Amino acid sequence: MVATTRRLTLLAAAMAAYALLFVSWLALRPFGKTSVEAMSDLGMVVPAAAGAGLAFLAAARSTGRVRAAWFFIAAALASWSFAEMTWSTYELFLGQETPFPSIADV
Known about the structure:
This protein is mainly alpha-helical. It has helices at residues 2-28, 33-42, 45-61, 64-93.
């Protein structure tokens, strides 16, 4: 039980540190507009992908209807992560405005 509590505390601290870094970067604009756009786009991929991974882990450790619920949550978070990556690809790497509707909206 102590090991689980320690892991959850470390995970919560890492998430809080990431959120602080993300908000600070957007507020302070340390390297100009381009870095803010990159952080704004790519910075949203990390929590979506991390959430999907943790939800898939929870699904693997569960059984029955709870497993199915965690799987659907994980699939939704993975879809969000894919959409964020697609959006970032359009804006940052292709230099195009993201079309609407696009593959990110599927």
